[in-house]
Amino acid sequence: MASSYRQQVDEERKARTRALLLDAARRVFVHRGYHAPKIADLVAEAGLGQGTFYRHFSTKREIFETLLDEVLAGLAEGFHEAFATLPTTAAEYRDASVRSVTAAAQLLREHRAEVLLFLKEGPTIDAAFEARVAEVLDSFAELARGFLDHAIRQGIARPCDSGIVSQCLVGLGVRLIERGLAEGNDLARTVSEIVGFAFEGFGPADRRG
């Protein structure tokens, strides 16, 4: 029977191998898309054998979806940390919005090529993956809707159809991923404009007077 130390060493080795496979798959998918590469291409990039691949993943689709799950987990963590305590004032709500949007924008910029790949090629894999991509976008819309509904109840935001507005925010986010989060763009300015638009819209500057 393997000692606890040997088991720990084996688990760490498996984790390193899995991470190596994921990193290699990420590079290959970003460079060549989802459909063209074969599993042999993924393991060649990782410097491993196909047998090693099948000890960690059953299909190319599974490793692709695992990459998606990793990005989603990072995004969810950023939002939940920013809104760990629900704000009760407009200033608190704005500060939390800046934190959450900044965390999301940083992560999306870091994984921009992957996210664009998920949005573009995910729906072409099969009906189930297409539905998964739609569910992901809807889940972020529901998250935004929950924050917006809280702001409306607190009198921080104007009454509105939060379902429609949250879907619009997700659409804005997708467009920003496509165009607004490139490396050369000023991230702080991008976040400032997003939050400013969410809080003030684009009406006259003196509309509150």
CATH topology of the largest domain: Tetracycline Repressor, domain 2
Assembly type: single chain
Instruction: Provide the low-confidence segments as ranges.
Output: none
Mean model confidence by pLDDT: 87
What's the CATH class of the largest domain, please? Mainly Alpha
Give the H and E element order: HHHHHHHHH
| Helix percent band | over 70%
Work out the number of β strands.
Answer: 0
Radius of gyration: 21 Å
CATH superfamily of the largest domain: Tetracycline Repressor, domain 2
| Shape-level CATH architecture of the largest domain | Orthogonal Bundle
Strand content: under 5%
Distance between the termini: 77 Å
Please give the largest β-sheet. Answer: none
**Number of separate helices:** 9
Strand-pairing-aware structural class: mainly alpha
Q: Number of folding domains?
A: 2
Principal-axes shape call: elongated
Blueprint of the fold:
Layout: H1 4-32, H2 39-46, H3 50-54, H4 60-82, H5 90-110, H6 112-125, H7 127-153, H8 162-180, H9 187-200
Question: What features would you describe in this structure?
Answer:
The protein is mostly helical and 209 residues long. It folds into two domains: 1-58, Arc Repressor Mutant, subunit A, CATH 1.10.10; 61-209, Orthogonal Bundle (Tetracycline Repressor, domain 2), CATH 1.10.357.10. Helices cover 77% and strands 0% of the residues. It contains nine helices and no strands. The chain has helices spanning 4-32, 39-46, 50-54, 60-82, 90-110, 112-125, 127-153, 162-180, 187-200. The longest helix is centred in the N-terminal third of the chain and has 29 residues, at 4-32. The relative contact order is 0.09. The model has no long low-confidence stretch (mean pLDDT 87).
